Amino acid sequence: MKQAMIIINPSSGKELALEYLRKVEDILREEAGYDVVVNETTKELDATNFCIDACKQEFDLVVSIGGDGTLHETINGLLDQKHRPKLGVVPLGTVNDFARALHIPLDPEQAIHTLTSSRLRRVDMARINDQLFANVVAAGSLADALSSVTSEDKSKFGAFAYFREGAKELLGSSVSPLSITHDGGTWEGDAPIFIAALTNSVGGFENLAPDAEVDDGLLHCFILHDLNFFNTLTAGVSLLLGNLKGHKDVEYFTTKRVSVTSTEPVKTNVDGEPGPALPIELHILPSHVQVIVPEDAEPEDE
Ligand SMILES: Nc1ncnc2c1ncn2[C@@H]1O[C@H](COP(=O)(O)OP(=O)(O)OP(=O)(O)O)[C@@H](O)[C@H]1O
């Protein structure tokens, strides 16, 4: 019989996570014909360890029920594994970038029904030092400011919580000396932030990297530099309009590999959570995981 593991963060989804759990179990058992194991997380890294078990025991499917934090921890269980189960996602977080990028419904009830879809999409992941990420890495003082956005603010303001925190930091015009080496050369200079995105949805802004496809085998990178008060406002407008890469103070490139170093201590943010300090090395892992997407999802599916 096919084996599915549900990894659920019971603290996500405004206390409703366990109610959704029963529905996911039912649909996987009765409609999709899986033998189902349920693992509830109680602390950081539980989701990673559960997913490692699912890989070692060659499960067919892992379903992550929770926010982007739980999803990020779950996909990290896939690191360096020979057998990688298919992935199902029931988004219960406040931003849910990964689900947005894959057109998985943000309504949990609808997302649960998607789990019976026969459509799979191969999705790129990327490696940063010794971990994986599914969505975005940001480095610089601005990235550090974004790490301080609370879940409460995210629920209240959505993507604007990041924008608000970012604008405050930019007004303080703190920059980091960065050296960024990618497939096309090296960029050196002072910048408040470097961003490498895998999908078009970053911090709930579906327009940050509109060209990024989940399976294009590329990291879409942005370096914001020379940002003063006026430029910050225009960069904000460009971000909302989806043409950030065309802004005069934004360097944009795509690459398969990129390394970022600094002569100063610089922090990073990985998939919305605090990440390792510089130096960092990123490289793309094309089509690394197969994700269940809605039957009517966009192209390039199997
Ligand atoms: N039982 C638990 N209680 C509290 N925290 C948990 C529990 N299990 C896991 N966690 C931690 O909570 C973190 C955040 O969880 P998750 O992203 O699922 O929810 P969220 O904070 O509601 O979502 P978002 O980040 O989108 O606001 C996880 O990265 C994990 O380390």
From TrEMBL:
<keyword id="KW-0808">Transferase</keyword>
<keyword id="KW-0547">Nucleotide-binding</keyword>
<dbReference type="InterPro" id="IPR001206">
    <property type="entry name" value="Diacylglycerol_kinase_cat_dom"/>
</dbReference>
<dbReference type="InterPro" id="IPR050187">
    <property type="entry name" value="Lipid_Phosphate_FormReg"/>
</dbReference>
<keyword id="KW-0460">Magnesium</keyword>
<comment type="similarity">
    <text>Belongs to the diacylglycerol/lipid kinase family.</text>
</comment>
<dbReference type="InterPro" id="IPR005218">
    <property type="entry name" value="Diacylglycerol/lipid_kinase"/>
</dbReference>
<keyword id="KW-0067">ATP-binding</keyword>
<keyword id="KW-0444">Lipid biosynthesis</keyword>
<keyword id="KW-1208">Phospholipid metabolism</keyword>
<keyword id="KW-0443">Lipid metabolism</keyword>
<dbReference type="Pfam" id="PF19279">
    <property type="entry name" value="YegS_C"/>
</dbReference>
<feature type="domain" description="DAGKc">
    <location>
        <begin position="1"/>
        <end position="132"/>
    </location>
</feature>
<keyword id="KW-0479">Metal-binding</keyword>
<protein>
    <submittedName>
        <fullName>Diacylglycerol kinase family lipid kinase</fullName>
    </submittedName>
</protein>
<dbReference type="InterPro" id="IPR016064">
    <property type="entry name" value="NAD/diacylglycerol_kinase_sf"/>
</dbReference>
<keyword id="KW-0594">Phospholipid biosynthesis</keyword>
<dbReference type="GO" id="GO:0016301">
    <property type="term" value="F:kinase activity"/>
</dbReference>
<dbReference type="Pfam" id="PF00781">
    <property type="entry name" value="DAGK_cat"/>
</dbReference>
<keyword id="KW-0418">Kinase</keyword>
<dbReference type="InterPro" id="IPR017438">
    <property type="entry name" value="ATP-NAD_kinase_N"/>
</dbReference>
<dbReference type="InterPro" id="IPR045540">
    <property type="entry name" value="YegS/DAGK_C"/>
</dbReference>
